[in-house]
Design goal:
single chain; mainly alpha; five-stranded mixed sheet; about 5% strand; globular
Length: about 550
């Protein structure tokens, strides 16, 4: 028995080590060059590092120094704490002297300084990705047993978007870490019925929402689930389980009070209430500008949204893993495992509360996958233990297919990151374009090839809006281009970031790009570079750059 326990522990440790290495392998992609204030961030979208936590700490996390309060403040606090030892050493060694709000912000070697801060933030995300795999194991063990937990951890470690977002200094993995910790505490509360588990469930739920608002979707059913679990506990204890007894039970109120107090502290509502109000105003403005739809319109788009979400799930983990999840859910329903069905409410609530009124991206569905994988682990255990040879063979085939498929997806992801077309474009520009040349683009400089040390970007037509991807049409006409007369124009196509010509809906701007790329605007294509792929899709939208195009003025 002890030998088997040690073996299982060793397997789990190996999976966690693989997750850490897999994430850190992606961390070197798109690092900032620090040559200008516009290129201090990574290529990844929606990142908060390297400067965000420093700015927040400088303003005591009140949000006073932030123009657009896009996210809640808690993860900025976490990253500021992670930065603290490095900042202290930088101040002592002179790497950081006389910090200021102007570039390079007091850094003696800006590129090195910003890269180091970014890597620290990436390490925090990577450790939280490891935590997500560990929590997938713990959730599955709590629900289906240790064997199902090991298979769950294996499949979770092989989820490609987890490897990518586990290396990026944004909020997708951190908020999922706190969310899954809350779900695990909820399942422990269902089994142990102790006050401490309910307390920590409430604490972690608030930390998840204080990291990223999206977490509320996974936790929206807690006000219903917690009283139901308390009722189960009262029945088990032989006590009255009516509505009044549930309301009087301290476990309900401890969970609610812990959640409320943690929410106030984690969002710094005492001294930063105005900042939180501005955050809510930003969220409302962003939704109204990009996602809002009336009732009939919202219903009309659901079939297409469901089909798109299903397609993304296939792209994320492959068909075998999804078949195992479906089989596990079906078996759980037939077995009437009440606690496991409570687990199922979390991803279903998230889809209904977050995806239905908005959109679906791979990172939006990452938490759904991680919380459904325990059902796949359950299906594997049932299949391998079945007396029917057909079920045993089917389980082996599905398991092998899931591991191979997900492994190929991870290899594909790392290949696209390593051969991002922007890297090749950097070499082309340095070879063919004279140093000091101004290169025009409509994409924000942070997403462009890293050449700001020897060249200068002129960004035209970009709204630089945090709430809209719209371009400024007046600057993107052939007449305006002729008046500016840039020597070179750089276009990032199919990028899914602001300035992507493939996402343009306005006829005038589309005509501008058509003329530019076809040679009718007086420009010729010098280089048309593509990121090599094995698959007709990519696991990460708004991540790797499929196509980079450099155009030169025809003289």
């Amino acid at each position: 028995m002890q030998s088997m326990t040690r073996t299982r522990t060793a397997v789990l440790a190996a999976l966690l080590a693989f997750t850490l290495c897999n994430s850190l392998l992606s961390a070197k992609w798109g690092l900032p060059d620090g040559a200008t204030a516009e290129t201090t961030s990574t290529w990844a979208v929606d990142t908060v590092a390297p400067l965000g936590p420093l700015n927040e700490a400088n303003n005591l996390f009140t949000r006073r120094g932030v123009d657009d309060v896009i996210y809640p403040v808690f993860h900025y606090v976490v990253l500021a704490g992670a930065y603290a030892p490095y900042i202290a050493v930088a101040l002592m060694t002179g790497e950081l002297a006389n910090p200021s709000s102007d570039f390079p912000y007091g850094a003696a070697e800006p590129t090195t300084f910003f890269v180091h801060l970014t890597l620290i933030a990436s390490l925090v995300s990577a450790l939280m990705a490891v935590g997500c795999v560990l929590l997938s194991y713990l959730i599955a063990r709590e629900t289906f047993g240790v064997l199902a937990a090991l298979w769950t951890a294996l499949l979770a470690a092989l989820v490609p978007p987890l490897a990518y977002y586990g290396a990026m200094p944004n909020l997708d993995v951190p908020y999922l870490f706190w969310t899954m910790l809350s779900v695990w505490m909820l399942l422990r509360a269902a089994r142990l019925q102790n006050t401490a588990s309910y307390l920590w469930c409430g604490v972690c739920a608030s930390l998840a929402v204080a990291t990223k608002d999206q977490a509320a979707g996974f936790l929206i059913t807690l006000p219903i689930v917690i009283p139901l679990l308390v009722r189960c506990g009262l029945r088990r204890e032989g006590k009255p389980d009516g509505p009044l007894a549930i309301l009087r039970d301290r476990r309900v109120w401890v969970a609610a009070l812990a959640a409320a107090v943690t929410f106030v502290i984690a969002n710094n509502l005492v001294t930063g209430l105005d900042g939180y109000r501005r955050h809510l105003a930003f969220a409302d403005e962003f939704y109204a500008a990009n996602l809002a739809a009336d009732g009939p319109g919202l219903l009309a788009r659901q079939p297409a949204l469901l089909a798109h979400s299903s397609s993304l799930l296939v792209q994320m983990v492959g068909i075998p893993a999804l078949l195992l999840i479906v089989a596990g859910v079906w078996a759980t329903v037939r077995e009437r495992r009440r606690v496991a069905l409570f687990l199922l409410l979390s991803p279903l609530g998230y889809y209904a509360a977050i995806i239905v009124p908005t959109v679906a991206h791979s990172r939006y569905l990452l938490g759904v996958v991680l919380l459904l994988l325990p059902f796949a682990g359950h299906a594997i255990v049932l299949g391998l233990a079945s007396r029917r040879a057909l079920l045993r063979v089917s389980a082996c085939v599905a398991l092998a297919g899931a591991v191979v498929w997900q492994g190929l997806l991870i290899a594909h992801l790392h290949r696209t990151l390593a051969h991002d077309s922007r890297r090749a474009m950097e070499a082309v520009i340095r070879e063919r374009v004279p140093a000091g040349t101004v290169i025009e683009s409509s994409t924000q400089a942070r997403y462009l090839p890293r050449i700001s040390d020897a060249y200068r970007y002129s960004i035209v037509g970009n709204s630089f809006s945090s709430t809209s991807y719209n371009l400024v049409g007046d600057a993107l006409t052939l007449e305006a281009l002729k008046a500016r007369n840039p020597a070179y124009v750089l276009v990032l196509a199919d990028s899914w970031v602001s300035g992507d010509p493939t996402r343009v809906e306005e006829a005038q701007i589309r005509a501008y790009y058509d003329a530019l790329l076809s040679g009718q605007a007086g420009y010729e294509i010098v280089a048309d570079l593509r990121t090599p792929t094995w698959l007709p899709y990519r696991q990460i939208t708004a991540g790797t750059q499929p196509r980079s195009i450099l155009l030169r003025r025809s003289d």
